Amino acid sequence: MFKSGILVMLITLVSRVLGLARSVVVAYYFGASAGTDAFFSAFKISNFFRQLLGEGALGTSFIPMYNEKVGKYGEEEGKKFIFSILNIVFIFSVIISILMIIFSDQIIGIIVSGFSLETKTIASNLLKIMSCYFIFISLSGMICAVLNNFKCFAIPASTSIFFNIAILGGAIFFGKTYGIKAMAYGVLLGGLLQLLIVLPQFFKRVGIYKFKIDFKDEYLKRIFYLMLPMLVGIVARQFNTIVDQFFASYLETGGVSALENATRLYNLPIGVFGISISTVIYPALSRKIVDKNFSAVEEDIKKGLNILLFLVIPSTVVLTLYAEDVIRLIFEYGKFGGRAVKITADSLFYYSLGLYFYTAIHLMTRAFYGMKNSRDPVKFSITAIVINILLNALLIKTMAYKGLALSTSIASMVNFSLLLYTFRKKYISINLKPIYIFLIKTVISSLIAILASFYLKNIILKLLVFSGVYLILWGYSLYKKKLEVF
């Protein structure tokens, strides 16, 4: 299982690096400007519903329901269940996309009210172009959830690679001619590619597709009942990003772009480590819970949390202590100037403080979903969101964009703490002592690595020395014990 996790992490790493390259290209051609502020805001809105379907509430609810139905009624009934859900997803996503096109001016006017009229107009036009992206990404996300349950992880993980290539191509080849609109068309093409790449493997698994919805299926009703609390939580979490956009629209021009670029960097370890590990663990975790093998469940969770510590703690150290150097290395080209570097680096520093908590949330929420408890994660998510919004309102006055980033970190810490405490109290009293010991080891190793690299002047050399020292310190243990070291 964890070997599959390593494969998914490697593929996700390629995808995230391409995503980072995408941000670099945008920064090079367009800087941190009103145009990029408009693009990032419109993209956030077109992406608003993405996690509701596929890889979000519906996809997560699907796995335990599908496994239960197949165990009870067989594979053919399971396929009918898949077809019903995908057909509902298609109808819903088409309706939402049409509404986004019709009401794009009103949506932009409400969500980023602090923008100038010119920036709002650009954002509205971009939203119209990107609206149909939601159709492609919803279907792709749900199909990826189906394939993951069939232990097919590589192809679903690789979809974002094609998405990023499409946007990169749009910016590089058409950016000078069509301006920021080239990015929007790149998003649309990228969404289509994400769908097309998973279809062959999907049809290989399910055979002939049927355009039919079995409304009498009890599992169809149950899955929507199960996903309802998740839906509330994901809507709230997505709403939180929109609220951040609202506050950021009142900052200096380029503030939204700076936060977006910082988010892209700190999302690199979240996507590569947190989402990859939780995606691979979840189907097996769900089966072990069904089999009531709770000792194995505890071991998987502890191992997952320790792997995240091993990967995320050094990432946090680098992204906080070397924030400005990293931003200069990656973004300071073309129209991306010194002021943009400064506000992006400051945002990255404060975002990175909550990196482990945000990463581990993905693992802990799936542990709850495996127990068919989607209500507690939703409650904690909403609690964290309320804290985030209150801190946004308080800290933006004194810390500006830095306050928005710090609020996100504090909220993620609260969310993770509530998840871990409640899971241990309700289900399995996970022994935290090995995790604390492993945390101390990773912190000490990271501090030694930072001391070895700190006084070097070149950031590439700093990163190479840091990585080399950190891996050397763990090399013997990894060689002798392999995954058992965790």
Please write the string of helix (H) and strand (E) elements.
HHHHHHHHHHHHHHHHHHH
Helix coverage percent: over 70%
Measured distance between first and last alpha carbons: 14 Å
Rg measurement, Å: 22 Å
Mean pLDDT: 82
* Structure class: mainly alpha
Q: How large is the count of helical segments?
A: 19
How many strands, what sense, and barrel or not for the largest sheet?
Answer: none
Number of strands: 0
Looking at how many chains there are and whether they match, the oligomeric state comes to single chain
Q: Tell me, briefly, the overall form.
A: globular
Give start-end ranges of low-pLDDT stretches. Answer: none
Beta-strand content estimate: under 5%
Structural overview:
The chain has 486 residues and is mostly helical. Helix 1 runs parallel beside helix 8, helix 5 crosses helix 6 and helix 8 runs antiparallel to helix 9. The mean pLDDT is 82.
Topology:
Elements: H1 2-30, H2 34-46, H3 57-73, H4 75-102, H5 104-111, H6 117-130, H7 133-149, H8 154-178, H9 181-206, H10 218-248, H11 255-290, H12 294-321, H13 323-331, H14 338-352, H15 355-370, H16 375-399, H17 401-426, H18 433-453, H19 459-481
Helix pairs in contact: 1-8, 1-11, 2-6, 2-11, 3-4, 3-7, 3-10, 4-7, 5-6, 6-9, 7-9, 8-9, 10-16, 11-12, 11-14, 11-15, 12-14, 12-15, 12-18, 13-14, 14-17, 15-17, 16-17, 18-19
